[in-house]
Structures are given as structure tokens and as C-alpha cells.
Design brief:
By secondary structure, this protein is mostly helical. It is about 75% helix and about 0% strand. The chain is built from 3 helices and no strands. The longest helix has about 30 residues.
């Protein structure tokens, strides 16, 4: 005896709490991104031919990619786990930023 009843697939959506968390962390990521874009515009004027272009591009890409990865990984997670994913991504961005500042100052 078999029935052709399809089980509904669970929908993974962001609720209002998760959206609020994503917006708050998005603002933090946007602040770092704004500084990276500012460096991309202003550092070539100061450094001239010594500009580390690869580093400036990485500084712009890391916040965007990190936020996107945290957002996608948090789709199927609890609210606390989503906060943790965004926080881990933000620490990756902070480490990348500090490392790039140290590189520019030492070279």
C-alpha cells in the first residue's frame, strides 16, 4: 500500500530577527568596505608606482565575500548560529584589514 503524497519541503527563510541581524552586521561589513574603497582610491595617489594593487583588491573583496558566505551558511541555521556566522566573517575581515595595514606599513 503506497500513497503518492508528497511531503512538503521545509522552506528556509529569514525571519524578521534574522533580517535585523543581517542588517546590523551588514552595516559593520559596509563600514570596512567603505574604508577599503577609500584606500583603493586614495593610496595610489600617495604611493604612486609602489601601490600594492592586489592587496587593495583583496581588501575590497574580502568583506563582500565574507558577508555572502555568512549569509548563505546561515540560511539553514538557528538565529544564534547566524549571529555566530556573521561574527566569524567579521573577524576574518578584521584580520585581513589589520594584515593589509601591516603589510603596507612595512613595505
Amino acid at each position: 500500500m503506497t500513497t503518492d503524497v508528497e511531503m512538503p519541503r521545509p522552506r528556509f527563510r529569514y525571519g524578521w530577527r534574522s533580517i535585523a541581524i543581517a542588517v546590523v552586521f551588514g552595516l559593520l561589513y559596509a563600514y570596512v568596505l567603505w574604508n577599503a574603497v577609500g584606500n583603493l582610491v586614495n593610496l595610489p595617489k600617495e604611493l604612486g608606482e609602489l601601490t600594492p594593487w592586489w592587496l587593495l583588491i583583496v581588501d575590497v573583496a574580502v568583506p563582500v565575500l565574507s558577508f555572502a558566505v555568512a549569509f548563505v551558511l546561515g540560511r539553514r541555521a538557528t538565529v544564534a548560529a547566524r549571529i555566530l556566522f556573521f561574527f566569524i566573517g567579521l573577524t576574518v575581515v578584521a584580520c585581513s584589514t589589520v594584515a593589509s595595514i601591516a603589510f603596507v606599513q612595512t613595505h
